[in-house]
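Is shikimate-3-phosphate placement plausible here? Inputs below.
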Amino acid sequence: MDWLIRKAPALKCELEVPGDKSISHRSVMLASLADGPCVVRGFLPGEDCLSTMEAFRACGVEIERPAHTTLIIHGTGGRFKAPASAVDCGNSGTTMRLLSGLLASQPFQTRLTGDASLSKRPMKRIIDPLSLMGAHIHAEGPQDRPPLRVEGGALRGIDYISPVASAQIKSAILLAGLFASGQTSVTEPHLSRDHTERMFEYFGIPLKREGLKVTIQGGSRPQPRDFRVPGDVSSAAFWLVAAAAHPGARLRVNRVGLNPSRTGLLGTLARMGARVREFEHSNSGEPFGTIEIEGTSLKATRIMGKEIPNVIDELPILSVAAALADGTTVISDAAELRIKETDRLAAIASHLKAMGVPVVEKADGLEITGGQPLRGAKLDSLGDHRIAMAFAIAGLFAEGETVITGTECVNTSYPGFYDVLQKITAAGHSQTPLIIRQDEESAE
Ligand code: S3P
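Reply from A.M.:
I modeled the complex. Tokens:
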């Protein structure tokens, strides 16, 4: 499906976003490991998280879905069954990498497959540490690419120094560590999102954090606990930038995750001149609350170093913010973007250029000179949900029409994004502020 987008007035809106993708994946995993039933509310019904849900069903976990965003997961205490056929991880790197860690100890063989994009993504980063733990993982694709064959067996704890700040690497090792003998530690160069650690603690698994090092003891299992998934701040990011870059815009996002390892974007936008406020309402393992933002004429900034893992999924939309900001924004230390759902540095550079923005593409980043009017263009998603959504937002600021092609991929993380975009555009000239809520209770 193609999206047609035209320039829109400043948004004045209050909204909620669907459940957090990273947390939804982990809620299924931890609940499946618990010895008893857990109710998960606010689950993201996006394709990536549904891939995780189906993978656990294939491994013998009974999962009921009484409503669209509610799961009742009957945990097996970590005793899984061999799936009858290959487990399809779809587009989801998180599903494949975390599942590899979990299945590495199970007494059976599993084959993990993925779509064309996932089949190009590197798996050596998890195969290496898991092999040090004694796992037998064979990549069928060239250069350790998927499909993966995971031959389960006995594991031993390791003390791993990760070369990359990656929550997927850290989480795959920690999940394997639950089934390993002795202690398992992971140290990362900068802090990546810490949802796995928080969820381990919430589900009663003892865990030690010392700076950038996390340690667990093998043999622990989660206790059954109900869980509520907050809204995804990475989905909110699209609307936050749409508001931040428009003088006169006002946006409030409710019930959104405020985990500090994920909210780097708020600091970046504040540095660029936007007025941003956070109100934390509650903390049940994962902090969540309200974000308010007021738009302005943005100015350029630098995004680099330890800020990068915190905004890793927001760099496409932050690049759009940079294109709308006065001056040259420099993004560096972001080579990881080249191995996401697509090569995001190349995609951002080519799409911004098509909209008339001067961009210099570097090996590990971008230099984006903003402040000139954007030109509407026809742009392909390249099968990447965040590229599709980021450039849809760019289209709200562009002269003429912007068309985004290949938008089906957006269902991986934000089903309903285009409906919200259309409502926001239609409400643009109205004096009454628009309020958009997530429908929680609709039956499956
Ligand atoms: C994720 C970690 C990040 C992020 C991805 C989700 C997770 O990937 O980009 O969208 O849920 O653990 P990396 O671990 O590769 O940085």
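Short version: The radius of gyration is 21 Å.
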